[in-house]
Amino acid sequence: PERKYKPVQGGFLVLRPDLDVYNEFVAIIKKGDFRKNGGWGGLVGPFYGSMTFQGIIPYYYDVLHPGEAVELNRCVYNQMADNPKDKPTVDDVPHGRCRTGQEECEDCRNQPLAEVVTTHFTLCQKPWLCLPQDSDVIQQRLCRKLHHEWHRIRADLEHSWGRNHVGPGKFQSEHFYGHCSKFGKNGYLSIEQPFGRATKSNE
C-alpha cells in the first residue's frame, strides 16, 4: 500500500499499436536501468515481476508518460478474486489497508458473475485442475462460479461441433459439465480435436 508506483497485473492489457512506443520500450530495455533496490529508474520496484511486464509497464505509463493510459476496473476486467487489503479476510470481511493505497477499495470477490468480462485464473487456480472450490468463503464462492462458467463455455464449444453438451465425467458432473472424472488435475478429461487426425497424403 505504501508504494507510489504500483505493479501492473500482467493478465490483461489493451494496446493501440504504435511503432514509436515500441521503439521506446526497446530502448528502455537495452539501457537496462533497473536497480537492485529501486527497480526501473530507481522508482518502480522491486516486486514480483518488476523486472518484466509488471514493472516496466507502470514505469513507462506512470513515470515517463503519465496520463497516456487508462486503468480499467479490475473487478470487471482480469478478475482474480483477490483480497483487496493487506490483512487476512475474516468471516468474509477484509481487514487492513487497501493495497491500492486508497482509504476505501472495492472487494472484487463480491462482483456479480454477470458483470465480469474477463478472468485471470491464478488465485482461483485453473478450471482444468478439477478443484471444487466449494468451501463457504468469499473467494471460493466466486471461484466456483468462474470455474463453472469456463466449463459451460467449453461445453458450448463442443456442442457446436455436434457433441453431447455434457461429458462423461462423474465428479460433480453438474458443476464441471462432465469434464472431470475425479478430484485434481489427473481427473480432467481433455477436450478432443473437433476433426479427425491429419493423415499423410499418398499423392
Which regions are unreliable across 5 or more consecutive residues at pLDDT < 50?
A: 197-203
Spatial order of the strands forming the largest sheet: 1-2
Largest sheet: 2 strands, antiparallel
Q: How big is the Rg? A: 21 Å
Percent helix: 25-40%
pLDDT averaged over residues: 93
Structural class: alpha+beta
Question: What is the rounded distance between the termini?
Answer: 66 Å
Order of helices and strands: HEEHEEHH
Q: What is the overall number of helices?
A: 4
Overall 3D form = globular
Strand content: 5-15%
Number of strands: 4
Secondary-structure blueprint of this entry?
Layout (H helix, E strand, L loop, with lengths): L18 H13 L2 E2 L3 E2 L12 H12 L20 E6 L2 E6 L39 H23 L12 H4 L27
Antiparallel strand pairs: 1-2, 3-4
Overview of the structural elements:
The chain has 203 residues and is α+β, with helices and mostly antiparallel strands. Helices cover 26% and strands 8% of the residues. It has four helices and four strands, in the order αββαββαα. The strands form two sheets. Strands 1-2 form a two-stranded antiparallel ribbon. Strands 3-4 form a two-stranded antiparallel sheet. The model is unreliable at 197-203 (pLDDT under 50).
Question: What keywords describe this structure?
Answer:
two-stranded antiparallel ribbon, 4 helices, 26% helix, 203 residues
